[in-house]
Amino acid sequence: MNDKPRSHLVRNLMRAGGVLFFAVLMLLCLQGWRMGLFRSLDTLQSFIRSKGAWAPVIFLLLHVLQILMAFIPGGIVHAGGVLIFGPWPGLFYNLLGSYLGSSLNFFLARRFGQPLVRHLLEEGDREKYFRWLHDGKKFDRLFAAAILLPLFPDDALCLVAGLSDMTWKRFLLLLLLKIPTVAVYSIVYATAGYLL
């Protein structure tokens, strides 16, 4: 078989796989939304606890899902981690889920490029962040600040980072800055969950 038709076939299969991946994600999101997983801490806790030994895996999948789908509120998932598994295991699962989801955002942007990122980000965010892509040092500083400081759109910036010249090694090292932020989110949301 000629290499050119084979590479064309592989590209088409990768595109089809990407479309299927996002279709499955959307179906999972809709099912989770319908079940109330992302609107009620009690519903999320009941659902995760009902999974027994699979609870950590299901929780990590939900965590990754909420990072990939920006409309899912992350606060309820962070609170759920600590309330379901306890302070230290919950913090660990929140960190791991956040790390996996952010890495997947970076990978998807790296693999599918600007068309995907343009589709996932709002126009104002795209214009704001894309102009920093060509200034590597400025973008790296912005990315580090977004990862470290709460209330920054770090999930969106992980997508944009996938379009930049940032290496995987640098990206993964900068993600370690999430540790204090995720710890603060976990504590604040869990405290709010205990009080409610």
Keywords summarizing the entry:
mainly alpha, 0% strand, 196 residues, 10 helices
Q: Please indicate the percent range of residues in DSSP E strands (runs of 2 or more).
A: under 5%
Content-based structural category:
mainly alpha
Number of helices: 10
Strand/helix succession: HHHHHHHHHH
For the terminal residues, how far apart are their CA atoms? Answer: 64 Å
Radius of gyration: 18 Å
Tertiary shape: globular
Number of strands: 0
Instruction: Compute the average pLDDT.
Output: 82
| Biggest beta sheet attributes | none
Estimate percent helicity: over 70%
Unreliably modeled segments: none
Can you tell me about this structure?
The protein is 80% helix and 0% strand. It contains ten helices and no strands. Helix 2 packs across helix 4. The longest helix is centred in the middle third of the chain and has 34 residues. The relative contact order is 0.11.
Task: List strands and helices in order, with pairings.
Layout: H1 3-35, H2 41-49, H3 55-68, H4 74-85, H5 87-120, H6 123-130, H7 136-148, H8 154-161, H9 168-175, H10 178-195
A few lines on this structure:
The chain has 196 residues and is mostly helical. It contains ten helices and no strands. Helix 3 (55-68) packs antiparallel against helix 4 (74-85), helix 4 (74-85) packs antiparallel against helix 5 and helix 5 crosses helix 10 (178-195).
